[in-house]
Write a sequence for this structure.
């Protein structure tokens, strides 16, 4: 469990006041025609998080949903470009993403996030920032042996060779979700089947109106 959560979450801004928007969250949700939520994809590097998240995003877009996808690598090109991969930086990375995702939810969107997010406490931190039912944890469960075989970026090879330090699954821990809303085993299902399982969950739980797929 991460030891950095309390320190990093200490508020440093003073003399600031929250301003209420003229357009309410409820109005924004009604305008979208579906319920907002964060679909939080977590799993090892190479597990298929980004691939499946993109497939889900495409399906939701085709159903007329307003969506956005936050990808781990993309965010580190800008917003989190100042962070490395130490445990403390990983925690701060997730804290920032949680805050951004919360803004998307406030706007009424279904936002997918594809991040390793290795620590249980940090995923719970994001869950607790959101309203009830607005955090959907999707565990992309892929054996590390399969992830290493895929190794699309060559990262496991570099980690095994000592060229990358603090690599999740090798010399940095990954804490498996205990009760994820959705559990996907990518070594047993196709990408399309994995995505359909997630979208069907959204339909079953009422995030997407029944008329959305007609």
């Amino acid at each position: 469990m991460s030891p950095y959560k309390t320190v990093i979450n200490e508020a440093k801004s003073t003399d600031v006041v929250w301003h209420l928007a003229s357009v309410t969250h409820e109005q924004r949700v009604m305008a979208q025609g579906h319920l907002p939520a964060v679909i939080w994809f977590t799993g090892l590097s190479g597990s298929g998080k980004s691939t499946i998240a993109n497939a889900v995003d495409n399906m939701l877009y085709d159903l007329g949903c307003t969506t956005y996808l936050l990808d781990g690598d993309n965010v580190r090109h800008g917003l989190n470009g100042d962070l490395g991969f130490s445990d403390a930086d990983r925690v701060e990375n997730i804290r920032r993403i949680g805050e951004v995702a919360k803004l998307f939810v406030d706007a009424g969107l279904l936002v997918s996030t594809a991040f390793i997010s290795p620590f249980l406490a940090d995923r719970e931190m994001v869950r607790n920032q959101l309203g009830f039912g607005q955090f959907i944890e999707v565990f992309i469960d892929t054996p590390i042996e399969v992830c290493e075989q895929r190794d699309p970026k060559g990262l496991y090879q570099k980690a095994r060779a000592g060229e990358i330090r603090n690599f999740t699954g090798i010399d940095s821990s990954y804490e498996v979700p205990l009760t994820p809303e959705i559990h996907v085993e990518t070594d047993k299902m196709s990408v399309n089947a994995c995505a359909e399982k997630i979208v069907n969950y959204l339909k079953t739980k009422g995030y997407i109106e029944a008329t959305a797929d007609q």
Observations:
- The two ends are 44 Å apart (CA to CA).
- Strands lie at 37-42, 67-71, 110-114, 135-141, 182-185.
